[in-house]
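Design review, sub-item: ligand-bound model
Attendees: FS, YL, KQ
YL presented the inputs for the iron/sulfur cluster complex:
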Amino acid sequence: MSNVVKKPTHVYDCFPDHDIGMVHGGGGGGREKIEGPPLAAMYHEVMQRQEARFDRFGYVHIPYCSTRCKYCGFYKYPITAEHTDLFVELLCVQLKKVADFSYTRLEPFKGFYFGGGTPTALTVSQLDRILTILNDSYAFADNREITIESSVQDLDDDKIALFKAHGVQRLSIGVQTFNEGIRRYLGRRVPVNQMVSFLRKLWKNGFTVAIDLLYGLPGQTMELWQEDVKYFVELGIDGISPYGLRIFPQSPLKKEIDSGQNPPIVGLPEKMEMFLWAREYLLQNGFRQIGVDHFGRNRERNEYLLAIYHNFDISPFGMGAGGKIDRLSFFNTLDFNQYEKMVSAGDPPAVGGIVKDENAVYMDYLNGQILTGCCDIDKIDRLFQKDTRKIFENLIEDFQERDLLRLQGDVLSLTDWGCCWHSRINTEFGNTFDRVFSPLKTTFDFSSSGDHPAPHHPMIGHRSHER
Ligand SMILES: C[S@@+](CC[C@H](N)C(=O)[O-])C[C@H]1O[C@@H](n2cnc3c(N)ncnc32)[C@H](O)[C@@H]1O
Ligand code: SF4
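KQ shared the predicted structure:
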């Protein structure tokens, strides 16, 4: 590695270029792009298999939203009844079609995750139709976890009753901040007291309730961030993902920043301090760190995040969903007309993918294990017939010097600073592997960079995990 900085005094200085890397870091090993007829052929080949080597999860992407928050960079369509009725129809066709493949019937699913956009922007009857088909067509493990992403604005008593009836037990709610002024500025419409009483109600109804909070928001100081985290802890609900604000180029926020109209926004060093403070506070208050940016207590499990880390197969449904089955990572079209055409013709709506070789599978597994914070090197070496310690000897030593990683016995774990740099760390592992084994290889990356609108491609390029 070049430009190595030893024992920095601030977490921000761990890498001299200060580049935290892609949203999803990783890479390493052989990865080939695949699209068009070869992608469709490979998809059909994996879906007709009679055996599977990974556990499985489902991801349904509902790219609709009834609002537009200033900062949001997620790809989404505005909600209209006509559009969503047809989308729901097509999604149900896709769900049924995939359910009939021999691969799908091999083993029960550990769970499903509905992400967006805002899936609960759909109506009760649309959600009912999707969940009915899901429960009728798919086999589930006993302790399955079905999560639906939502905002309080799009939930009501009828939807809650529907989720109960269909066995949805976890809700991931975008809160972003409890600060009334910042909420109004961001375009979050529900007042704090109303939102909080709804969160309490969900929790009393027996749902696992996890929320997203953003740090580095316009006008948000360290003190205001601390108030948000403390407020969350006092609420008693189960899970929290603290996410650092990213500025997406097409967002209204970016336009305001460019014209100098926004309240002050802190830089990356301060954002790292905000994350580190929250991590420490949450751990001191009885939370477990479930992933680099997720913490839970009580009934929180977050099986979807663990499925990604554990290198599960993830079947992607809906426009813009990404997933992987065995060595094939792929993503569905984001374009409504193309989705309609492909699904109506009985084709998989996948428009791009990557085929990994066994080295890439190893790298994704290793990088996922690192994200768990508890990576058992010997176990990985037994699984993949590698000598991880030897391949990454210099890198591990270097990262220990910078206080990013810790190697104790056979277990490699991220330090608190390492959590701030997890994406870059994954990428450096990938690059090191390639320098050792295929120095002339050209690399590419399908994952979105920190600044670009992000469709949901959880498995493209990287990420796996195990506890
Ligand atoms: C796709 S949204 C789904 C939740 C729901 N739509 C809501 O906002 O209430 C998932 C999460 O992405 C995060 N997110 C959205 N825009 C972001 C940005 N610019 N930077 C960082 N995180 C962002 C938010 O925390 C949000 O809750
Ligand atoms: S953050 Fe959530 S509610 Fe806001 S625009 Fe994005 S998807 Fe919609």
